[in-house]
Write a structure and sequence with these properties.
Layout: H1 2-15, H2 17-29, H3 42-47, E1 53-57, H4 73-86, E2 88-89, H5 92-100, E3 108-115, H6 119-130, E4 136-139, H7 151-160, E5 166-169, E6 175-178, H8 182-198, H9 201-215, H10 230-238, E7 242-245, H11 258-276, E8 282-284, H12 295-304, E9 308-310, H13 336-348
Parallel strand pairs: 1-3, 2-3, 3-4, 4-7, 8-9
Antiparallel strand pairs: 5-6
The structure holds zinc ion.
Length: about 350
């Protein structure tokens, strides 16, 4: 299966089959609906509707973190160069607005980044500028400009720089972290993160602190991932990058109380708008899976003045897609041929 996939990927790249098929689909098969008319049969209409894809990136850096590996800048550049060449990169907000008017352009894609890592400024911005590629960053405002590290990065770093091999976590019902081998460390980490996501803010913070106390990470020589500063954000804005909210503290929104939920949505928006001096109408759900948000969250987003929200559900979007549940794909293939192939398949079939 894998060999077949590799051969197919090679063929696609050599004859630019993806480009040719996209041209054919966008000219002869996929259509924008007549102005204001999104019917009559949603299923059939969705199947033949013009579509656009959204890519999600996180860290872009040469740092080889064993537990949360960033995308290598050289590979990032290859992907952007390819998208610039074979697709039509648009600003996400513009794309969403055009979609709502039934005017999705051909081969449309948008590029997004989550969390607000400083390496987006150091490594991604030069590439975005070089290829004149518009992008949108969704930032967790509580960690901007104050050297605070996101809660899961604290866990990743505690595991990476641990000075002990074993730890009993009382906050996880005597769960034992085992760092004897790479495999056991990864297993322990996966379980810890999964359970930490289920905890509410205060309990999760307690757990993070316990992990740091028990694993005693040596953080002196580390390259702790600092987040962006407001100056860097403004500089990126001047270079054409747009910004959206990714909450204040990055909680799983389906698990927080209504008062906190409201604070996460409104305060992040207000702070961004105060610094950027422009309306902020885009939002990215932390974690972004269907169980991480719900109708209450969507309703509050709408009331807070957001016009669109992105998830981490893979697939393409059409005019029929709920603007508060836009799909995004993750470009995790290291091989450019496979990246191209997967990106193409994701454009035409939801399952990819
Ligand atoms: Zn995030």
């Amino acid at each position: 299966m894998k060999i077949l996939q590799n051969i197919l990927a090679r063929i696609v790249a050599v004859v630019r089959l993806d480009y040719i098929l996209n041209e054919i689909f966008d000219h002869f098969i996929y259509r924008n609906p007549p102005r204001g008319k999104f019917g009559p049969s949603p299923f059939r209409a969705t199947r033949y509707a013009r579509r656009f894809q959204i890519l999600i990136y996180h860290k872009i850096s040469p740092d080889a973190h064993p537990f949360f590996r960033p995308l290598d800048p050289a590979l990032f550049e290859k992907q952007i160069a390819f998208l610039r060449d074979s697709y039509n990169i648009l600003n996400l907000q513009e794309l969403v607005e055009r979609s709502q008017h039934g005017e999705i352009p051909e081969r449309a894609v948008a590029i997004t980044f989550d969390d607000g890592y400083r390496d987006n400024y150091t490594w991604a911005l030069p590439v975005l500028k070089k290829y004149s590629a518009p992008a949108t960053l969704f930032v967790t405002t509580g960690s901007i400009g104050n050297r605070q590290v996101l809660w899961y990065d604290r866990i990743f770093d505690a595991f990476r720089y641990a000075t002990t091999k074993r730890a009993h976590l009382r906050n996880l019902k005597e769960f034992e972290v085992d760092l004897d081998s790479e495999a056991s460390a990864k297993r322990s980490l996966e379980l810890t993160i999964r359970r930490a996501k289920q905890l509410a803010g205060g309990a999760r913070l307690k757990l993070v602190e316990e992990i740091e106390q028990t694993l005693q990470p040596d953080l002196r020589s580390n390259s702790r991932v600092p987040m962006l500063s407001w100056d860097e954000i403004r500089e990126m804005q001047q270079a054409g990058v747009r910004f959206g909210s990714h909450t204040v503290t990055h909680p799983i929104l389906s698990r927080v109380e209504k008062a906190q939920l409201k604070m996460e949505l409104t305060e992040s928006k207000m702070e961004l708008e105060a610094h950027l001096k422009m309306p902020v109408v885009g939002f990215a759900y932390p974690n972004g899976q269907p169980s991480d948000y719900n109708e209450d969250v969507k309703k509050l987003l709408w009331e807070a003045g957001y016009l669109y929200a992105v998830t981490t559900n893979p697939g393409f979007n059409t005019v029929y897609q709920d603007p508060l549940e836009l799909r995004r794909g993750q470009p995790w293939q290291k091989d450019m041929g496979l990246f191209r192939l997967k990106f193409f398949l994701q454009r035409h079939r939801r399952e990819f």
